[in-house]
């Protein structure tokens, strides 16, 4: 069983930055794929980024490439999502998700464990 707790969300102006954190209860994150999903009001949840253990390969949704950066700190059992140049369309609840395995996936069904989410609101 893995428990995930997100933090770092908030309200920011367009162009601002946030760093989201996903703290895991399990100390072997390196054997898991960890992803960030987001769900905007009235829309389906979508995967925005993923990182896998081993070589720390990363993947990004095309629309966030160049602005989002995912990283992990195994010593702290934490995965981060750095979000720069925030846009109003980034407004959503951001969730982290985890599953055992070494391949990224953008499908919700590929993840076993989910956090409760953290709200990101971008407006002027």
Can you walk me through this structure?
With 124 residues, the chain is an all-beta fold. The chain is built from no helices and eleven strands. Strands 2, 4, 5, 6, 9, 10 and 11 form a seven-stranded mixed sheet that branches. A four-stranded antiparallel sheet has the order 1-3-8-7, with no helix packed on it.
The count of DSSP E runs of length 2 or more, i.e. the number of strands, is 11
Overall pLDDT: 92
Shape: globular
| CA gyration radius, whole angstroms | 13 Å
The number of helical runs is: 0
The poorly predicted ranges are none
Global structural class? mainly beta
User: What is the straight-line distance between the termini?
Assistant: 40 Å
Question: H/E order of the elements?
Answer: EEEEEEEEEEE
Largest sheet: 7 strands, mixed
- Approximately what portion of the residues adopt beta-strand conformation? over 45%
Helix amount, in percent?
Answer: under 10%
